[in-house]
TrEMBL record:
Organism of provenance: Enterocloster bolteae (strain ATCC BAA-613 / DSM 15670 / CCUG 46953 / JCM 12243 / WAL 16351) (Clostridium bolteae)
Keyword presence, Transmembrane helix: yes
SUPFAM superfamilies for the chain: P-loop containing nucleoside triphosphate hydrolases
Membrane topology category: Multi-pass membrane protein
Chain ranges passing through the membrane: none
Primary localisation category: membrane
Name recorded for this polypeptide: TraD/TraG TraM recognition site domain-containing protein
GO cellular component: plasma membrane
Protein origin, superkingdom: Bacteria
Amino acid sequence: MRCLIDEAANIGQIPRLEKLVATIRSREISACLVLQAQSQLKALYKDNADTIIGNMDTSIFLGGKEPTTLKELAAVLGKETIDTYNTGESRGRETSHSLNYQKLGKELMSQDELATMDGNKCILQLRGVRPFLSDKYDITKHPNFKYTADADDKNAFDIEAFLSARLKLKPNEVCDVYEVDTKGA
């Protein structure tokens, strides 16, 4: 079973989510939380947000500019070592030359680079693998794309038509009617 929870920050808090994400995998259940920014998870789950993130096997950054998310992702990506060479020349009575060699640490991607990342790129973090930059999947290339509403309007699901058909009483159908007093509440 796969639980895909889009806009997870807008549905309210899922009770004991920090414990669930740690245990449901053993029962062949996976959870995919879709958020705009990690700060949304922290606002909703407070101290448990780090536990939830830590128990997720996969994380995908599709782009964004929320400072906390950018800072944390830049830290996770880490640094690379770059070699720098500086040359100098001084002239006076005698000309002298100098060559200075240094190894410096540079962030793989700065917060600014993450915020302005190409819209066709994403950063994937998989358990046991260093984070990596990848192309986003072009959904129009999927063999089942033709069945989506984006490909053809006739594939659109009309929720109002579906519900209105279900809400109509059939002849001879028995139902209970209740009156609710909302003024006393």
